[in-house]
Design a protein that fits this description.
The structure is a homodimer of 312-residue chains. With 312 residues, chain A is an alpha/beta fold. Chain A folds into 2 domains: 156 residues, Rossmann fold (3-Layer(aba) Sandwich); 132 residues, Response regulator (Rossmann fold, 3-Layer(aba) Sandwich), CATH 3.40.50. Chain A is 40% helix and 16% strand. In chain A, helix 3 runs parallel beside helix 10, helix 6 crosses helix 7 and helix 8 crosses helix 9. The radius of gyration of chain A is 23 Å and the shape is elongated. Chains A and B meet through helix 1, helix 2, helix 3, strand 2 and helix 4 of A and helix 1, helix 2, helix 3, strand 2 and helix 4 of B.
Chain lengths: 312, 312
């Protein structure tokens, strides 16, 4: 029953005999004791009320359910304690594989990850220093492309509202791509042009307010998530600043809401459903004993709608 | 190992002896064979990409995780075949309890539900003819209240876009509450004033277009879900019809998006997180052997924002 080795034949026989003698049909639990397969995948996400993660789950489920795997869902609420608890549970319940989207505890807790004896895939994070396969969009490149698109349309004064810096993909990476693009095109970044949101529309509303108190206003803003971009659109609407006539707004994620705003949001397509499918496929490959790449990159795209205008 | 009876002592002993002789620590699976507790709750929802259901899950998780129960997630995609498959799986995996939000198959498949031997709670549906506890908002009354509020503000020509009729809570019940309020106030419902959406913003956009082709336009529209109300707001925006100056719009659900639209949506507060918590609590009560009401009603409220105006 040690998860890392095949079941010893004598144990297998003993359990089967016990089941036989009592005349019961082996049920899923008894069977999994013997076959060592639960056909359950543990999935840990930080937040289920966030559309991004619910669509990630949908993608994972659509792949694994085809192969008759089911999902054990762990919601960590971004709490390190819960992350550790669920990893212990995953092990105890002898799940067949694990997909992790919530790994705050990583810093300094690499041991926990190294002790997992079943296949693991991590999504949304690049795990430097681990052998664990990851599935991720190239956030730096995508933010670079979004910013370069604004620059290509003639914008020079471009502000940026990033995700929180404790979230490397939406904070550091997307901010980093913006900075890289500005630098590559020889454009300065005024100090007041860069702000950090906390993923809520409200935080971006406030950040935009601060940015527009600057003496020189930006002609375009790159916002690291669509939900925060909605906060920016609302600030501009409430101030009577027209989008895109006065200011262009570029989002990131291409959530459903991006096509429901007026004007509709130009954004980066970063499909959590495809993330989920890719993660599910990487995990299934491992379960079949196939080798997988250490890092798979989910492609990104610009989705051109109505919130960005060329400067003439 | 038959779920309906205690484990027979001889089997219990045999399994424990097999485990002992081989020198292994009993793991969660071996332990659950003996204790008959998996501490896993099966939760079945139709659609995870819908914010309503992801927040329902969040509410359920917040209650059960406090008592060290975890969640086995089943996404049915509204497919009867998947619903049956997952119910079989729930049984096989010997989950301790079940919360169902997806029960399309119910008509004519009552046998399946009657065969479940663990505690069950159904959310979002009133299960007439079953003994299964349900958790639900009073959709008829809530829709009645929303419509009566519009009437109280002086509106007489009120249109309604309901959910699809195959979904009783959002289709029949919310439409029913609207009809009941109109009738109670002696107001006629012109034929073209009633339309059915399919939950998408797009379907409501199209429905609103048809309603506004009528010779006599409505002064207010009651829309059975917030997401569809966004579709209506967008149609009116694109036509240059002002909300609430020309037309009032009332939503239902109070999703996050209701406070992100411009104007912000006046709507019915119908909190899926609270649903989830109530369902989790009803299930925990059953697991502790306490009696539960057959039907619990989650309270609703009107949330007054900016999309509805009094007629003078």
């Amino acid at each position: 029953m040690n998860n890392s080795k095949p079941v010893r034949p004598e144990l297998r026989e003993k359990v089967l005999r016990a089941v036989e003698e009592t005349g019961f049909q082996p049920n899923a639990i008894a069977r999994s004791l013997v076959s060592k397969e639960t056909r359950i995948i543990g999935v840990m996400i930080p937040d289920i009320s966030n559309n991004f993660y619910s669509n990630l789950l949908y993608g994972i489920d659509s792949v694994i359910s085809e192969f008759d795997y089911s999902m054990f869902l762990a919601i960590s609420d971004e709490a390190v304690e819960k992350e550790r608890k669920y990893l212990r549970l995953f092990k105890e319940k002898q799940l067949d594989g694990i997909i992790l989207s919530s790994i705050h505890f990583l810093e300094g807790h690499s041991q926990t990850l190294h002790e997992i004896e079943v296949p693991v895939v991590v999504t949304g994070h690049d795990l430097h220093g681990y052998q664990i396969p990851t599935v991720n969009v190239n956030n730096v490149q995508a933010a670079y492309d979004a910013t370069a698109y604004l620059i290509g349309l003639g914008h020079r004064r471009i502000a940026c509202i990033s995700g929180p810096l404790w979230d490397p993909p939406c904070g550091l990476d997307r901010m980093g791509g913006y900075r890289k693009a500005m630098r590559a095109h020889g454009l300065p970044i005024p100090e007041g042009f860069v702000a950090e949101g906390d993923f809520t529309a409200k935080s971006a509303y406030e950040a935009a307010k601060r940015i527009f108190e600057e003496q020189e206003r930006p002609t375009a803003i790159f916002v690291a998530t669509d939900l925060m971009a909605v906060g920016v659109l609302n600030f501009l609407h409430d101030e009577g600043i027209r989008v895109p006539d006065d200011v262009s707004v570029m989002g990131f994620d291409n959530l459903e809401i991006a096509s429901l705003t007026r004007p509709m949001l130009t954004t980066v397509h970063n499909d959590p459903y495809m993330y989920g499918r890719a993660a599910g496929e990487q995990l299934l490959k491992q379960l079949r004993g196939e080798t997988v790449e250490r890092m798979s990159t989910v492609p990104h795209d610009l989705v051109i709608r109505q919130s960005v205008k060329a400067l003439v």
